[in-house]
Each structure stands twice: as structure tokens, then as C-alpha cells.
Amino acid sequence: MVVVKDIDFFSLCEHHMLPFYGKAHVAYIPNGYIVGLSKIPRVVDIFSHRLQVQERMTLQIKECIQETLNPLGVMVVVEAQHMCMQMRGVSKQNSVTTTSNFTGAFNQAKTREEFMNLIQNR
Fold first, then answer.
1. Which of 37, 105, 109, 120 has the most C-beta neighbours closer than 10 Å?
2. Higher pLDDT pick, 40 / 82
3. Residue 15 has pLDDT above 90, yes or no
């Protein structure tokens, strides 16, 4: 398993035109092909540098890596703070929204658990 965690990102919510920002954690299990480690944060940047929603961004990162490398599995977890939650409406300053998406070998609970343990050990 190749894991790149704590990838900082900044994006702009397409619903409220306000920023959301946080960290992305990406893992894939190679199937004959690997990619330079710097390419994973670039994928995150590509999808975060547009009007976006967190749920779709998480899916797009996973799909891009899956289609490009055809690994045995991909998992993406995104943790973000949304200015729309902090500035308007409920005004919850410290709330964090977490989304995840996975495929392949990560359908097995044991593999997902290994990834989650790796990204939580800071």
C-alpha cells in the first residue's frame, strides 16, 4: 500500500462561493505500475482548484488514480472545514466534514482499517 497523507488543499464551494480547505489522504495498492509520490498531491490540486463540492472532489481523486494506474484498490479520505459552515447559517467554527471513497481491495474492512490506522497515526 502506498499512502500519501496530510495533503493540504484549498477549494471553492460551488454552492456558496466560499472556501473550504483541509487535508486529503490517498492510498493505492500497486498492480504493476507506480507513480512518483509528487503526482498524488498534484491530482488533489487539479480537482480542488475549481468550483467544487467535497463529496465530488473525493470521488474524482479516486477515479483519476483508478483509471490512470489500474491499481488493486484506491482509497481517498478528505477532511475539510467549510467557510459556509463557519460564516453563515449554523456558525460552527470547529466543525470538520469527512468524506471517503474507495474501490477494489479497500472493499475489505481489514484493508480499510489498515489505511485508517496509518492516516490517524500522526
1. 105
2. 40
3. no
- Residue 54 designated active-site: yes
Q: Which of 14, 49, 55, 113 is catalytic?
A: 14
Q: Which among 15, 49, 55, 108 is annotated as catalytic?
A: 15
- Over residues 13-33, the mean pLDDT reads 94
**Grid cell at residue 41:** 498531491
Per-residue pLDDT tens for 49-67? 999 999 999 999 999 999 9
Q: Is 49 a catalytic residue?
A: no
Beta carbons of 28 and 71 less than 8 angstroms apart: yes
Strand-by-strand arrangement of the 51-52 sheet? 51-52, 2-13, 19-29, 73-82, 97-104
